[in-house]
Amino acid sequence: MVRRFCVMGDSEDVWSDISDSEFLSIQLDEIDEPCVSGAQSHGNEEPCAGRSPETSPQKAARAALKQIWSRSPLKRRRVSLYSMNPLEYFRRRHLSVTLLCEQSWCEVKVVCGLLRPLDKKAEMARPEVKMGAEIHLKKALEVHEEVPILVLSREDDEAVRALNVMQKIVTLETGMCVREFPVFGVLEGVFVMGFIDELSYDERGQLVLSELKTRRQMSIPRPAQIKRDGLQVRLYMLLFNGMISGSVSKSDITDHLGLQAGRALGTDVLNHARAMGVQADTFGTLLEVMLRRLALSNVRPPAHLRLQYCHQGSGDPIGTEDVPFEEPALRAELQGYLAYWTGNREARGVDIEDAWKCQSCHYQASCEWKKNNFPTAHSHEKP
Ligand code: SF4
């Protein structure tokens, strides 16, 4: 497993995502200060999906909001949020699988975390989150050797991911287990990426896609959490199947992520690629090799999706959950989430029957959704 260390001026990691949904959401590109002007902040920023046409009442409402909220710096940020879609406002070239899973838990919570990055950072610095991350890294290093590579550009950074994909596909073809497999692709018009926790073969030789979840309690989580975790492996499956079926193109990657196909690879990346037998001098050529390699692979789509829960303290297994996969239903669900990011609707908080989620929410004291929708909700049975 190659692991890059970075000397770039631009530290944005466009592939950022790891498999533990708690740890992994503390990514640099998620906590960037959002752009507060209407102009794009990056010269090579990928144009985002368009906002739906506005009606006259919507325009009038926006004008009124601007008048009311333009008196303080904090409120000016809210004005900007209303003047572009969330992908543009938060300068997102892509969405991560873990972010979409957080969104399925509570959309308003995701937005609060993006608008208040220091709060989000504090939330993610909890000991149990760090412990979960350490367990994942330890497990990844059980099957992969870590090789540091110096990257000098964003293209180098992504080239390292491409090399990891090629290396891990070869390992899968030999019937062995891989961990932290990078997945990516365009889903419903938006570039989505993540890292599959584990791909391995069962006793019948069928490929199993698994996600490890660590828990403080020695018990299987409640259905709402299993549903969120299930979405994670279902999205990984959709992305992985797209990659091995050849439906990802070079321009999907370069256009959506704002990368230059003609950029020469840095020396360290180049040397590592050659050591792997990959002949490519530019980022674009390397992508072509990777995509061809994926399309020619004999690896079949996973036969099973599995969630594995284990105890954080002891490492003891708690239990497993098998997750069904139905592509049309998943795509319909995904369209619902993406409608927020492409500006087709406002963010929604939890429904009243899920108000119990607010009890452990970092943002409950200031959450306007909670105040407006169930101000007197104090205790609700968790389903
Ligand atoms: S308090 Fe409730 S509605 Fe508000 S962000 Fe938290 S979970 Fe969502």
Name the features.
globular; 15% strand; 383 residues; two-stranded parallel ribbon; 6-stranded mixed beta sheet; 44% helix; alpha/beta
Tell me what the structure shows.
Residues 36-57 are annotated as: Disordered. With 383 residues, the protein is an alpha/beta fold. Among the domains are: 56-87, no CATH class; 126-337, no CATH class. 44% of the residues lie in helices and 15% in strands. Helix 5 (97-105) runs antiparallel to helix 10 (223-244). The protein starts with a strand and ends in a 10-residue tail after the last helix. Iron/sulfur cluster (SF4) binds at residues 106, 108-109, 112, 349-350, 357-358, 361, 363-364, 367, 369-370.
How are the SSEs ordered, and which strands pair?
Layout: E1 2-6, H1 28-31, H2 56-69, H3 73-83, H4 86-89, E2 95-96, H5 97-105, H6 107-115, H7 117-124, H8 127-143, E3 147-151, H9 154-173, E4 178-187, E5 190-201, E6 207-215, H10 223-244, H11 250-257, H12 267-275, H13 283-295, E7 304-311, E8 317-322, H14 327-341, H15 368-373
Parallel strand pairs: 1-3, 2-5, 6-7
Antiparallel strand pairs: 4-5, 5-6, 7-8
The percent range for strand residues is: 5-15%
Distance linking N and C termini: 40 Å
Computed over alpha carbons, the radius of gyration is 21 Å
The whole-number mean of residue pLDDT values reads 80
Order of helices and strands: EHHHHEHHHHEHEEEHHHHEEHH
Number of strands: 8
Shape: globular
Q: Give the number of helices.
A: 15
In this entry the ligands are: iron/sulfur cluster
- Structural class by SSE content: alpha/beta
